[in-house]
């Protein structure tokens, strides 16, 4: 069996973390790089990643995340926040990054820039915000796979009040919205969930060959 399949069989949504164990700086940097290299639509990466380590701040977040213990017990709390009202400015910033990274004239990609603006900036605000939110889940998947490779436990979480998380962290003022959360660390030996068999659909039920 390939390493990636072994990793995916090993990982699970950890319910109880060992609060005494912390992720090394080196492993955290690897996970951050996996997130940074994630695919995104057009390559725009219309989001920010918040790494919340301050205990006091995490204690404030726990009540608005359904009181879940992972918020305070995990080694690291990662919040994926999509940009709200993403449009021309974000696209122009990305275009400048392309020009500087690849050493090409801006004129050579102007057609691509105009195309992106025609497809994104013209969308209603709600649709654009929904689209940027979806992009965070691709980055989240990279985090889960990288963590499993490092034998670091990770729990993806949607169980939180986004508006209240935004308020606690002041995300509204930054043009951001808490889209999804991941907690990182190491499973507690008392976490019974680690012994449960993984439940997934069969190939026959999940896949359709055309």
From TrEMBL:
Keywords: Flavoprotein, FMN, NADP, Oxidoreductase
Gene3D superfamilies reported for this sequence: NADH Oxidase
Pfam family, one: Nitroreductase
Domain of life, per lineage: Bacteria
Cofactors required: FMN
GO molecular function terms noted in the UniProt entry: oxidoreductase activity
InterPro entries xrefs: NfsB-like, Nitroreductase, Nitroreductase-like
Domain called Nitroreductase: residue spans: 9-176
Record-stated family: Belongs to the nitroreductase family.
Name of the featured protein: Nitroreductase
Organism annotation: Flavobacterium endophyticum
Classification of source organism: Bacteria, Pseudomonadati, Bacteroidota, Flavobacteriia, Flavobacteriales
